Backbone:
């Protein structure tokens, strides 16, 4: 554990605890799969919910501290804060989908994303956990709308990626004549994959639009083919291809599952790869 | 889809194919990557330096120096547009029929084949049965039509028929956004202008070329200012006070800050950069520390090129000021930038009009003194140069078209994804003393949710009609 997390403000200490809560939730969801024990399932959901509430509290506390320091802003402005928000979004979108579609098995394949995203804040290179003042370009309500919509979209895509991985594992086993009975039906997984993308796609679209509106206010051009913008468009093209693939015979199931994994890889590259490998207007560093 | 013959038929068939759509979207995604890996719009020397002569030749031939405006990228977009237009023309009539001529009274045989469906009998009158079912459906947001014939009655109810058009709204929006981009590309411009405090200009230098656009009015920078967060070096705000002058008369004065542009006559001014013209003009504040051990330190302010008295007949002259000092090739002092990144001043101390010595003062290296045993030490306190502001200036008459497209694409997506076209047909037939009721439902997407909805609907109908479940 990084020293800053131990010596940091209350909000970062809370996050250090939430990391372990999400790890526990992941383990519980994995245990739930083979046993299908109702109590275990409820426990997994409960632990996840508690973690999420703590994470929410951490974000609120961080905002309050930032106001007390005199440069009040919502906690969406550097890499650390965005990763916290990323995991927060994944958990809330996941919980909604679990509640709506009454399926707890996908938790085992989605919660790891929330856990990894948070855990990365303590081990990732150059991640600063301090609350920092905002440079003028970041002082924009469009930016807040942009971050929230993008990350909720990313979270939905994380769910679709988790579901697609389950699909491929199950389909592979069935090809070999075996069945992994504890994973949901292929039809159910295919459907959930589509439903997650249906939530993610409009959010990503809105995210790109609010980002364009922000750029228009800050730089006088709504689109300048900056690497981050371009990668978000690449992601958008991939998921648009996904949506159309479902209307084409022979594309459902395996091919769309692969498309949605490629799509999520593009999401991760848009979010992290661009900052780490290519520099542009967006670099958080 | 109908099979079409001949060349035009094959052309048509090619562009109505969804496989082409998937292919185009995928190729657009893959080729877009190149522009994020290769420098865009740099000059030839930079490419040669980074990729060699051969690499530059490839980049030039394929237009990779400006991928998103290259002929092949635009061709891909044009194909996508053609794909959307032709596909929409092909499919729209069929979708429009759902709106214009809905299947209100299908054959009984057809109804018997559809699912989900439910059949039961009631002892209420025909009229009453129809009335109760219809009001229930209305309560659920269905639009209903009723038809009563000899010995039987029918209801046709539907909602969300707009879902059939959502796809066209979405696709049309893509076209609108592209048209907006095209308008901006043809009739818009984007460039920059730098204005020194107190001066005005009407020339905008276009980015990526050396063209200059002359504005039909003057832009004056009254002042420029940077505010910092207390106790930090993080800027909190960049602010230019800008006045627009028409024929020399001021018409608008406004603060232009980052994220708060000024718009005048369709032209937008954004706070983009700033700097200090320090070597020409400006005032330096110094702390003077006499070395005789008697007098206390004091402060003086001196302008570039001018003199101030110190004490005991000594005078101080500010020979030159460097806001960002570096040593050039032949060890000559020069500026790396116009910002106060490494301020340094060259001072001359005279006595009684006679030259005594010269000394450098560095803001960030206060203990460096180039003259030993001098009567004074100097510490840099601050420098106030004449600032200039850098404004980005752009005109984009297509931007409203783009925002319109963006709004509609969101509306279209919501219609596509979160509304489904639900239809319910009810057939009530007199059978002896009782009435036979047949309820049939149909939906065009999200069948699982509709099955549940239909089940609840049937339960409610039965309850309303007093039928035991
Ligand atoms: C960037 C461009 C495009 C976007 C954002 C887009 C978006 C969409 C969306 C959101 C849907 C609804 C999918 C669903 O309900 O699951 C859809 C369906 C469809 N799109 Fe596109 N589309 C694009 C390009 C195209 C192109 C080039 C074609 C050319 C043929 C096309 C043809 C269709 C067709 C035929 C459907 C299915 C309509 C139906 O039967 O319900 N789309 N599109």
Residues:
């Amino acid at each position: 554990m990084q020293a800053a997390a131990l010596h940091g403000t209350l909000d970062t200490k809370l996050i250090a605890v939430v990391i372990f809560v999400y790890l526990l939730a992941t383990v519980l969801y994995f245990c739930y799969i083979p046993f299908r024990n109702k109590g275990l399932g409820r426990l997994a959901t409960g632990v996840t919910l508690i973690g999420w509430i703590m994470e929410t509290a951490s974000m609120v506390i961080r905002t309050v501290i930032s106001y007390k320091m005199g440069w009040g802003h919502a906690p969406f402005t550097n890499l650390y804060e965005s990763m916290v928000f990323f995991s927060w979004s994944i958990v809330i979108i996941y919980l909604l989908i679990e509640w709506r579609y009454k399926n707890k098995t996908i938790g085992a394949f989605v919660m790891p994303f929330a856990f990894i995203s948070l855990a990365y804040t303590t081990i990732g290179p150059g991640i600063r956990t301090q609350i920092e003042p905002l440079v003028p370009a970041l002082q924009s309500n469009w930016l807040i709308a942009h971050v929230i919509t993008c990350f909720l979209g990313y979270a939905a895509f994380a769910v679709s990626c988790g579901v697609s991985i389950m699909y491929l594992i199950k389909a592979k086993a069935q090809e070999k004549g075996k069945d992994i009975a504890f994973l949901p039906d292929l039809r159910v997984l295919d459907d959930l994959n589509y439903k997650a993308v249906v939530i993610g796609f409009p959010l990503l679209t809105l995210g790109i639009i609010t980002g364009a509106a922000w750029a228009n206010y800050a730089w006088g051009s709504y689109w300048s083919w900056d690497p981050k913008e371009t990668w978000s468009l690449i992601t958008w093209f991939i998921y648009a291809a996904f949506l159309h693939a479902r209307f084409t015979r022979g594309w459902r199931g395996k091919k769309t599952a692969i498309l949605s994994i490629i799509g999520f890889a593009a999401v991760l590259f848009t979010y992290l790869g661009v900052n780490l490998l290519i520099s542009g207007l967006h670099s958080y560093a | 889809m109908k099979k079409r013959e001949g060349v035009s038929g094959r052309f048509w068939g090619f562009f109505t194919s969804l496989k082409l759509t998937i292919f185009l979207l995928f190729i657009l995604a893959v080729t877009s990557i190149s522009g994020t890996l290769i420098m865009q719009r740099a000059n030839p020397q930079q490419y040669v330096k980074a990729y060699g002569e051969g690499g530059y030749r490839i980049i030039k031939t394929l237009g990779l120096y400006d991928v998103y405006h290259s002929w092949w990228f635009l061709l891909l977009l044009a194909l996508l547009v053609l794909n959307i237009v032709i596909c929409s023309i092909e499919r729209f009539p069929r979708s429009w029929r759902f709106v214009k001529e809905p299947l209100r009274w299908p054959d009984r045989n057809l109804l018997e084949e559809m699912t989900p469906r439910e059949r039961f009998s009631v002892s209420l009158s025909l009229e009453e049965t129809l009335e109760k079912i219809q009001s229930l459906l209305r309560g659920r947001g269905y639009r209903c039509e009723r038809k009563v014939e000899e010995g039987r009655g029918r209801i046709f109810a539907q909602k969300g028929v707009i879902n059939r058009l959502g796809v066209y709204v979405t696709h049309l929006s893509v076209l609108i956004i592209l048209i907006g981009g095209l308008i901006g590309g043809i009739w818009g411009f984007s460039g920059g202008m730098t204005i020194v405090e107190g001066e005005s200009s009407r020339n905008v230098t276009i980015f990526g070329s050396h063209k200059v656009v002359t504005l039909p009015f003057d832009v004056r920078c009254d002042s420029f200012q940077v505010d910092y967060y207390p106790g930090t070096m993080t800027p909190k705000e960049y602010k230019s006070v800008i006045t627009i002058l028409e024929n020399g008369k001021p018409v608008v004065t406004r603060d232009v800050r980052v994220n708060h542009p000024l718009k005048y006559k369709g032209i937008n001014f954004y706070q983009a950069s700033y700097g200090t013209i320090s070597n020409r003009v400006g005032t330096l504040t110094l702390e003077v520390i006499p070395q005789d051990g008697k007098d206390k330190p004091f402060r003086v302010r001196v302008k570039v090129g001018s003199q101030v008295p110190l004490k005991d007949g000594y005078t101080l002259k500010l020979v030159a000021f460097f806001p960002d000092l570096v040593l050039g090739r032949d060890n000559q002092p020069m500026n790396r930038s116009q910002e106060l990144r490494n301020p340094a001043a060259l001072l001359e101390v005279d006595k009684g009009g006679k030259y005594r010595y010269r000394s450098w003062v560095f803001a960030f290296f206060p203990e460096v003194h180039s003259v030993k045993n001098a009567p004074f030490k100097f510490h840099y306190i601050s420098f106030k140069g004449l600032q200039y502001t850098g404004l980005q200036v752009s005109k984009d008459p297509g931007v409203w078209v783009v925002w319109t497209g963006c709004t509609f694409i969101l509306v279209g997506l919501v219609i596509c994804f979160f509304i489904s076209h639900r239809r319910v047909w009810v057939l009530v037939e007199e059978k002896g003393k009782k009435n036979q009721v047949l309820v049939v439902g149909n939906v065009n997407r999200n069948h699982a949710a509709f099955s549940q909805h239909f089940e609840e609907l049937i339960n409610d109908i039965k309850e309303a009609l007093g039928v035991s479940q």
About this structure: Chain B has a mean pLDDT of 89. Chain B touches chain A through 48 residues (CB under 8 Å). The pocket of protoporphyrin IX containing FE is lined by residues A 240, 243-244, 246-247; B 18, 21, 80, 83-84, 87, 91, 167, 170-171, 174, 413, 416 (CB under 6 Å).
